[in-house]
Fold this protein.
Amino acid sequence: MSFTRRQLEMLGSVLKRTRDFEYDCDDVLGKLAEYLETSADETVELNRELLLTQAHLEICPECQEELEALEAACEAVEKPEE
Amino acid sequence: MTNRSNDSWIADLSADGDRRDAAVTDLRAVLVRGLRQAFKTTKRVDEAFVEDSAQDSLVAILAKLDQFEGRSKFTTWALSIGVRTAISELRRKRWKDVSLADITAEDRSEADVAVDDTERVEVSAEKQEVFTSLLDAIDKALTDKQKFALRAELAGVPQARIAEDLGSNRNAVYKLMHDARKKLLAALDERGVTSETISELFA
């Protein structure tokens, strides 16, 4: 079985972040809103659940994409209506 | 639009009649506004897509109301479901006609695993050894399903699309790949590649 170097680099990077216990994508969906609001405040320490969420986001580009879209959506909703 | 607290959202959406209808209308407006902005630069997204996604999201949110724990603003939580609903549909459309059999076909030689000249030579040589061990570990430690999913994932195929081919779901694919990664780490360790080495070599 063969892979490109770039793919093996990606795999190595994900292996580096692999833990015995990880949140899956559904776990993260349930925490994404709380994570977005809490991580925006640098004075607040993330609890265990949010650290697990953060760890998942580091290795799951799909959930990361959803977080970025959520951030944009929330900004639009928070802005006063024109 | 009425400004509601989290408790008011839940109470109004759980009520009957006009009170519920007004809350549903307001929530739909929140979803449309948020999704429109989130996907404003995304190809294949038009107003009809935003409206449809908001409607689908609304149904999902109302079915999950009892799962809202109040740890964020209700609208942020609702939008997280809206975003996943919309992105899942975009990914489904983008990949529905793509054959994973073609993507995962083994049509490349191991010569693709080349040394990057921009790295220090000694690091590259060590990394090349790790790559060789990694390829061997993939070959010997993973199941056929895991090899298929790994190849597709590294080619950028969304998990939901991989799941379709495996007759599974996104979450199950994540678990399948988590198990695969743990197997690879164990197999690498057996080949003398420790987790410390992996941490040092990869970004």
Remarks:
- Residues 35 and 54 of chain A are 8 Å apart (CA to CA).
- Chain A touches chain B through 41 residues (CB under 8 Å).
- The radius of gyration of chain A is 16 Å.
- Chain A is about 70% helix and 0% strand.
